[in-house]
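Q: My labmate handed me this sequence with no annotations at all. I'd like to see what the chain might look like in three dimensions before we decide whether it's worth expressing. Could you predict it?
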Amino acid sequence: MTAYLTLKEYLRTHPAEPPVLDALGRVQLHLGLATGAERTYRQIIGEDPQGAQGYIGLSRALVMQERWQEATHLLESAWNAVPTASIRERLALVQEWEQRGDLPRALQAVQELDRAAPDTPDVTMTLARILFKLQRLAEARQELETLIRAQPDNAPAHALLGSILMNPLLAERDFARAEESLLIAVQAHPDDMTSLSRLGQLYMEQGRMPQAANVYTRMLQRAPNLPDARMQLAKAYALMGNPAGSREQTLLARRPLANRLEEERLTIRRDQRPSDANARLTLARYYLQIGDTMKAMAEVQAAALLQPQSEQARREFRTLYARLGITPPDLPDP
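A: Here is what I predict for the chain of 334 residues:
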């Protein structure tokens, strides 16, 4: 909310440059202010009609308003508006299609990019990732192996290659190379939970329980509330003949697992109705219940801006700031 109010005040006295407008638009989307974000991103497109970010932001604002067809057509318009030579801008559009689950369109677009700019690492990596998601594993593997030959220390490429090489759908799995790639990825990025989890899965499948237990313990040292890691550690302990340790980890996993399931339920409800202040407040109350004050603050702020006429939203907004001992920013008049 402070970012939103500060940016609005800044734009009253300064030029409306696209990077500043984009910052405002992203905050508006985060707060559920879809119509405001729509105006902001239309302004960005007016200022920079060949840049991808304005179209992407506007499309997200339209999706938030359930204007699906307009949002879909807008991204196609963006693909035609962004110059062919603007690889990074076009790659942003590919990634937007990918994030929305439109993998066939993302693949078509990234293949066009790959033909226009072969041997571009970011394009190759995106192409491999989309092929992987489409379960075209042999093709994804080929792209990654080519990339790694050119960039032997490319940790994301190693992480994805490791996942492919251990995938049961791959015709010829290679556990040794998968382990090597995953270890390279983890060494480069010790907090890469995805690679750590896949490394643990690899060890479990091979029956190497001490190594698996070590990986899951390492994950829990970094993120103690990961129920999946605790359940896998419990399984490893059981297979190692340590029933007491297995029971302990199972018990420790129950609360975080229940919390995650409830958070997912409430988050889906909020995402289905991003402009519904009540959905935001319900999620905020849950976050306060489990002690996650920062996440609660974001939802309470959004609720107060979405429905400034709601006394309930304003009261919970003031109460949370008082609880934190922070002076709240001024809310718009109801």
